[in-house]
From TrEMBL:
<keyword id="KW-0575">Peroxidase</keyword>
<keyword id="KW-0479">Metal-binding</keyword>
<feature type="binding site">
    <location>
        <position position="156"/>
    </location>
    <ligand>
        <name>heme</name>
    </ligand>
</feature>
<feature type="binding site">
    <location>
        <position position="364"/>
    </location>
    <ligand>
        <name>heme</name>
    </ligand>
</feature>
<feature type="domain" description="Catalase core">
    <location>
        <begin position="23"/>
        <end position="411"/>
    </location>
</feature>
<dbReference type="Pfam" id="PF06628">
    <property type="entry name" value="Catalase-rel"/>
</dbReference>
<dbReference type="InterPro" id="IPR011614">
    <property type="entry name" value="Catalase_core"/>
</dbReference>
<feature type="binding site">
    <location>
        <position position="67"/>
    </location>
    <ligand>
        <name>heme</name>
    </ligand>
</feature>
<dbReference type="GO" id="GO:0046872">
    <property type="term" value="F:metal ion binding"/>
</dbReference>
<dbReference type="InterPro" id="IPR020835">
    <property type="entry name" value="Catalase_sf"/>
</dbReference>
<dbReference type="InterPro" id="IPR041399">
    <property type="entry name" value="Catalase_large_C"/>
</dbReference>
<keyword id="KW-0560">Oxidoreductase</keyword>
<feature type="binding site">
    <location>
        <position position="107"/>
    </location>
    <ligand>
        <name>heme</name>
    </ligand>
</feature>
<dbReference type="InterPro" id="IPR010582">
    <property type="entry name" value="Catalase_immune_responsive"/>
</dbReference>
<keyword id="KW-0349">Heme</keyword>
<dbReference type="GO" id="GO:0020037">
    <property type="term" value="F:heme binding"/>
</dbReference>
<dbReference type="GO" id="GO:0005829">
    <property type="term" value="C:cytosol"/>
</dbReference>
């Protein structure tokens, strides 16, 4: 007779909207879900944290085969050359020997979208670099923003779940403008600083070649004497830091969703090799507590005015991949891939990533031998007793596969430190096992205010516009109100303006951080400006003066400015000039500037739209028209900043405008 009291195995569904205690997958009720188990509040994460490992393992294996995050990416090969030896700080060979050229592979990516999403969505950009050093691979796995949304890795699955398309509709793709993302932000105020970066122009870069890279986390440099310094890594682009405007980014997403990857590929093919300088911020161990922020907190940056960036070398990307899947798609990065002289800090987000990345590669790349895929192999020999496993591509010879052994004279044997063996920094740890957050991590708003204070007025306006757009797409009044409440802690004026735009409640009490502190390095307003590698659309409205057009193009080429000739149809103008694009295939958003040439008494509507959009996006515009009356119907002010009448001004002034890039003072 059936025992009705017996536990029955059955199919069932889970309704996460019902009230229920949080448990592990084994049914164990969980008392804390925001903090990893650590040795002291500022200590390292402990391996025995079964809840963290279960949660992170499940998250890492959720999607096959594309990456859970950073699925859409593009990569390129290059080299790194050190300027000056850093032997005072580290024993890492590639950072101490200036005679060596280190091969690198870089993968840029977006975070939220799938492999098929658009390049120009508002998102954080991944900036991951693999150094193939003589001592093994070193992976600097970072972003184009110096901070992150969360402080503890145990919350990473929650953050990404909230950011990703909502599970009941799989909408939206490649966007953070939806309820679950902003619900997470409103419930987790540690994200305040990062969300300001994500709503700034940094989230819509003009080009991958024109964005900074940051290692985000605090690492350690260890020299040959065993002395340690805390360090943060920076990539500074030689072309400067430049962004799109929001309307422009949206247009590009429809006109050319591969805009960034195509730009990178074509620049390298042309020989316009992108370059970044490697910069280090270094803090002696004795100064760890000498700042008004915790240097281990991944939601905090080190202001460059307080901790200067030391430029130490240059990276040049000079070769495109031969096969996208074999290289860009199969490359496996890991912040735990380090070399002697580089070690970790107790940043709780970094500590969790040290587990997560290997776990992810096991699923995504089909087993434990992903390091044997050519793009992941070190350039130095590797020997160990690991054997077999899926996709084993090495034929291991010999009888022994264990350590210690006598049958093979204990080979391979550990290398002593003095012969290059890796030794972890012997940090003293003293603390109770605990789930919690150090009090020094509790200041969520000061650096968010610092970032906003540091922006130029046009950058501040763009940030508020972005907040209004994103929160305006949310449906839940609670989500909107909570987000405005967070903004009220950062800046009252932002909260007032955004609340008014989206119809949300403004808190009665002003809780903003009272600070006028600025860090000029955080604004893009004074970045490097140059015309090289920018692209001009030469618009033909009717026939052109071949001789003058040839002279102008020759001058553009002298400054390494790219160009496309756009007309109603494709045709050959002369033996050396050809129309390459039509008004059906080209768009103002795909260019950095425009030059209108017209002998006609009438300007065609597509031409008008092109120059009006160029003007609207604050870009330089040059006009060479026979009859000024043809522009009377156009919403372009010929006397506005950044507009050049080539009947009065010569082409060099236009080139200066191309170098400047945008004319934010232009009235619209």
């Amino acid at each position: 007779m059936e025992n009705k009291k017996a536990v029955q195995l059955k199919k069932f569904s889970i309704n996460n909207e019902e009230k229920a205690p949080l448990t592990t997958n084994q049914g164990l009720k969980v008392s804390e879900d925001e903090f990893s188990l650590k040795a002291g509040l500022r200590g390292p994460t402990l391996m025995e944290d079964f809840h963290f490992r279960e949660k992170m393992t499940h998250f890492d294996h959720e999607r096959i085969p594309e990456r859970v995050v950073h699925a859409r990416g593009v990569g390129a090969h290059g080299i790194f050359q050190l300027y000056d030896s850093l032997v005072e700080y580290t024993k890492a060979d590639f950072l101490t020997d200036t005679s060596k050229t280190t091969p690198v592979f870089v993968r840029f990516s977006t975070v939220q979208g799938s492999k098929g999403s658009s390049d120009t969505v508002r998102d954080v950009r991944g900036f991951a670099t693999k150094f193939y050093t003589d001592e093994g691979n070193f992976d600097l796995v970072g972003n184009n923003m110096p901070v992150f949304f969360i402080q503890d890795a145990i919350k990473f699955p929650d953050f990404v779940h909230a950011l990703k398309p909502e599970p009941h509709t799989e909408i939206p793709q490649g966007a953070s403008a939806h309820d679950t993302f902003w619900d997470f932000i409103g419930q987790n105020h540690e994200s305040a600083h990062m969300v300001m970066w994500a709503m700034s122009d940094r989230a819509i870069p003009r080009s991958l070649r024109m964005m900074e890279g940051f290692g985000v986390h605090t690492f350690r440099l260890i020299n040959a004497d065993g002395d340690a310094h805390f360090v943060k890594f920076h990539w500074k682009p030689k072309l400067g830091v430049h962004s799109l405007v929001w309307d422009e980014a949206q247009r590009i997403a429809g006109k050319n969703p591969d805009f960034h990857r195509q730009d990178l590929y074509e620049a390298i093919e042309k020989g316009d090799f992108p370059e970044w300088e490697l910069g280090l911020q270094i803090i002696p161990e004795k100064d760890e507590f000498n700042f008004d922020f915790d240097i281990l907190d991944p939601t905090k940056l080190w202001p460059e005015e307080e901790v200067p960036v030391k430029i130490v070398g240059k990276m040049t990307l000079n070769r495109n991949v031969q096969n996208f899947f074999a290289e860009t798609e199969q490359v496996a990065f890991h912040p735990g891939h380090v070399v002697p002289g580089i070690d970790f800090s107790n940043d709780p987000l970094l500590q969790g990533r040290l587990f997560s990345y290997t776990d992810t590669q096991l699923s995504r790349l089909g087993g434990p031998n992903f390091h044997q895929i050519p793009i992941n192999q070190p350039v130095c020999p590797f020997h160990n007793n690991q054997r077999d496993g899926m996709h084993q591509m090495t034929i291991h010879q010999g009888q022994t596969s264990y350590h210690r052994n006598g049958l093979n004279a204990n080979q391979p044997e550990p290398a002593p430190v003095e012969l290059g063996g890796y030794e972890s920094y012997q940090e003293k740890i003293d603390g109770r096992k605990i789930r919690g957050r150090s009090e020094s991590f509790l200041d969520f708003y000061s650096q968010a205010k610092l970032f906003y204070n540091s922006l130029a007025p046009f950058e501040q306006k763009h940030l508020k516009d972005a907040l209004s757009f994103e929160l305006g797409k949310c449906k839940s009044g609670m989500v909107k109100n909570n987000a405005v409440a967070l903004l009220n802690h950062i800046d009252r004026q932002i909260a007032e303006e955004v609340a008014g735009n989206i119809g949300a409640e403004l808190p009665e009490e002003n809780l903003e951080v009272k600070s006028d502190k600025k860090s000029p390095a955080l604004s893009m307003a004074k970045t490097v400006s140059q015309p090289a590698t920018k692209c001009v659309a030469i618009l033909l409205n009717g026939e052109a003066d071949d001789e003058k057009l040839t002279d102008w193009i020759r001058t553009l080429a002298q400054f390494n400015i790219n160009y496309s000739i756009v007309a109603k149809k494709v045709y050959t103008i002369s033996p050396v000039l050809k129309v390459t694009d039509t008004f059906d295939t080209a768009d103002s958003s795909l260019f950095d500037a425009a030059l209108l040439i017209s002998k006609s008494s009438q300007v065609e509507p597509p031409v008008l739209e092109f120059i009006e959009t160029t003007f609207k996006h604050f870009k330089p515009l040059a006009v060479a028209v026979k009859d000024k009356k043809v522009l009377e119907r156009c919403r372009v002010q010929l006397d506005a900043p950044g507009v050049y009448d080539l009947s009065k001004a010569d082409i060099p002034l236009f080139i200066e405008g191309i170098a400047q890039g945008r004319f934010w003072e232009r009235p619209l």
